[in-house]
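thread from #wetlab-drylab

HS: before we spend reagent money on co-crystallization trials with cobalt (II) ion, can we at least see a predicted complex? here's what I'd submit
DV: go for it
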Amino acid sequence: MVTNLEHIGIAVRDLAASNDLFTKLLNVPPYKAEAVEAEGVTTSFFRVNQTKIELLEATSPDSPIAKFLDKKGEGIHHLAFEVDDIAAEMKRLAAEGFTVLNETPKRGADNKWVCFLHPKGTNGVLVELCQEIKE
Ligand SMILES: CC[C@@H](C(=O)O)C(=O)SCCNC(=O)CCNC(=O)[C@H](O)C(C)(C)COP(=O)(O)OP(=O)(O)OC[C@H]1O[C@@H](n2cnc3c(N)ncnc32)[C@H](O)[C@@H]1OP(=O)(O)O
Ligand SMILES: [Co+2]
């Protein structure tokens, strides 16, 4: 079951500059910075009440963020929905005809299992599903 809009991912060219910008905008500093090597990104997270923003800077030219910045420029890159059972949601959405981009959930940032749906099947919006890792 989808339970929540967990975060909005924003692709940026210069994470340090965007951290300053969002700190001024939201009047709170980022609560976390984290590199996710497998995705070729460095992230930082802001939280205002229930709202979370993830800023993403590319760390390699073949990162999805580098490709996105080349094609579309800075801006909203994905919407991440929290789910209570990511494996079950991946199965359900595949059966509904969505293109699930991962065979199994992978480790994302901020202690989450994540997977993605192809934007061509979701009205041009890249969708991330995420579930907290409990170990
Ligand atoms: C930090 C970890 C995690 C978290 O915990 O929160 C993250 O958020 S990681 C975020 C970065 N990782 C990903 O985005 C992984 C999922 N993405 C992908 O697998 C790929 O980017 C893709 C969506 C399959 C596209 O890859 P590819 O086909 O190689 O790239 P193209 O540049 O050729 O794009 C094809 C097509 O898709 C459009 N596109 C690409 N990205 C987006 C996007 N974010 N939103 C909307 N549309 C997107 C792209 O414009 C191309 O369209 P056309 O030009 O019309 O063909
Ligand atoms: Co994300």
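DV: The CA atoms of residues 23 and 49 lie 15 Å apart.
HS: ok that's useful, forwarding to the group
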